[in-house]
Amino acid sequence: MQRILTIIGARPQFIKASVVSKAIQAQAGIEETLLHTGQHFDANMSDVFFDQLGIPRPDVQLDIHGGSHGAMTGRMLEQIEVVILREKPDRVLVYGDTNSTLAGALAGAKLHVPVAHVEAGLRSFNMRMPEEINRILTDQVSDLLFCPTDTAVRNLEKEGFADKPAQVLKVGDVMQDAALFFAQRAVRPAGFPVELLSTDGHGLSRTEGKGEKSAANPFVLATLHRAENTDDPARLAGIVSALNSIHRDLAPVLLPLHPRTRGAMARQGLELLTHTIDPVGYFEMIWLLNHCDLVMTDSGGVQKEAFFFGKACVTMRDQTEWVELVEIGANELVGADGERIEQAATRHLGRRVKDDGELYGGGKASERIVGHLLQGVGA
Ligand code: UDP
User: Fold this and answer.
1) pLDDT of 292-335, one tens digit each?
2) What is the pLDDT of residue 369?
3) Of the four, 68, 306, 344, 356, which is 20 to 30 A from 180 by CA?
4) Is 301 a pocket residue for ligand 1 (Cβ < 6 Å)?
C-alpha cells in the first residue's frame, strides 16, 4: 500500500484535489492522508468545497494564513515537516502554485520524500507573480511532474527537464475533470440578483421552469483576485472603473467578490457598482458559468472554465499560463487598462466558443495521475 500525503490549502486546490481523491478511492493501492494548511479558511472559501465536492475532512488541519509570503510559507514548511516526520508518507502530492504548494513540496523534498506536482510546467514568465515563483521552485524539487497541456511540457523541456531524473507527464487538466464531473450539480446562487432573472411573462423566473436553459438575462460573470491586480493601486482602479462602465453601459456585471479584493478596495476607497455577491460554492459557480454571456477574470481556473462552458473570456492580466486559449481566440488578454477592457467586453459579449476536448484532456486527467502514482514510487 502506497501512502500519499496530499497538501492543499486554497480554493482551487480543493476543487482539483476533489477529483484526484475520488480517482484514488476508486483504485486499490493508495492510502491518502489529507493536510489542509488553513491558507483559505472562510466557510465560503473552504468548507463549502469540502461539503459540496465530497472531500473527506482533512486528517491534519493547520491554521496558517495571513502575514507576509515568507512568514506564511515558513510557518507551513515548519509544520508540514513535523507531519511528514510523523506520518512517514511514501510521497507528497501538491497542486498548483500557492504558498501551500511550495511549502509542501519543499518540506517533502528536504526529507527525501518524492514529490508529485499536479499542474506542473505552467509559466507566465512574470517573476513578480508570487504564483510563478511557487511554480518554478515546486517543479524543481518534484520528481513526478503532471502537466496539464503541451505548452507546460514544452516549458519544462526548455528548462532542461529532459536531462533530469524527474518524469514529465502530460495528463490533461484536472479542472476539466471537475467541470465535467460536477456539471449536472449546478445550482443558482442564493444571492443571484432577481433583476437578472428572465421571466416567462407570467412573473415566474425561468429557472423554475423544467429544462429551461436560459434562466438569466444576459450578464457578465467577473472574478478578480490576483495580487498583481489587487496590490497595484493603478491596476485595481483601472479594472474597477472598467467593470463599473461595462455594468452601466453594456450588460450587468455580477462579481463574486474575493476577500483579498474586498480588502484592497476598502483600503483604496474604491467602489464596485456592479452586482457584487460573496464568494460562491463550486456548484453555484458552474451555474453562473452556464448562464452568463461573457467571463471577465484574472483567475487561472476561471479562464479555462469559461472555455469548458462555451463562453468567451476577457482576461484582465498581461500574461496567461493558458496560452492555447489565446491562440485559438477563446480568450483575450487585456491587462488592466480600462479602455482595452471595455472594448474587449463589447467585442466578446455573447460570443460562444467550442471545446473539442483536445486541449485539456477531456476529463481523464485524474485517472491518468493515479495510474502514474501507482507506478511512480520506487520506479
Ligand atoms: N470559484 C468558486 N467560487 C467563486 C469564485 C471561484 O468556486 O466565488 C472557483 C472557480 O470556479 C475555479 C476556482 O474557484 O474552479 C478558481 O479559483 P481562483 O480563481 O481562486 O484561483 P486560480 O484558479 O486563479 O488559482
Assistant:
1) 999 999 999 999 999 999 999 999 999 999 999 999 999 999 99
2) 98
3) 344
4) yes
Identify each DSSP E strand in 9-75 by its residue range.
30-36, 60-61
pLDDT for 245-278, tens place per residue? 999 999 999 999 999 999 999 999 999 999 999 9
How far away, in angstroms, is 18 Cα from ligand 1 center? 14
**523541456: which residue's cell?**
157
The single-letter DSSP state of residue 111 is T
Looking from the CA of residue 286, the nearest atom of ligand 1 is 11
**Residue 4 forms beta bridges with which residues?**
32, 91
Q: What is the pLDDT of residues 100-127, one digit of tens each?
A: 999 999 999 999 999 999 999 999 999 9
To which residue does cell 477592457 refer? 341
pLDDT band at 200 (very low <50, low <70, confident <90, very high): low
Ligand 1 closest atom vs CA 96: 25
348 flagged as catalytic: no
Q: What is the DSSP letter of 206?
A: G
| Number of C-beta neighbours around residue 227 at 10 A | 15
| pLDDT tens column, 31-70 | 999 999 999 999 999 999 999 999 999 999 999 999 999 9
Q: Ligand 1: does its nearest atom lie under 6 Å from the Cβ of 305?
A: yes
- Estimate to the nearest angstrom the gap between the alpha carbon of 115 and the chain centroid: 21
Q: Check pocket membership of 99 for ligand 1, CB cut-off 6 A.
A: no
- Ligand 1 pocket check for 299: Cβ under 6 Å: yes
Q: What is the mean pLDDT of residues 336-348?
A: 98
Closest CA to 301 of 318, 319, 284, 320: 320
> CA Rg, the chain, in Å?
20
In short, whether 189's Cβ falls inside 6 Å of ligand 1 is no
Q: Are the CB atoms for 129 and 227 separated by under 8 Å?
A: yes
DSSP symbol at 367: H
Rounded Cα distance, 92 and 7, in Å: 7
Given 36, 65, 117, 225, the catalytic residue: 225
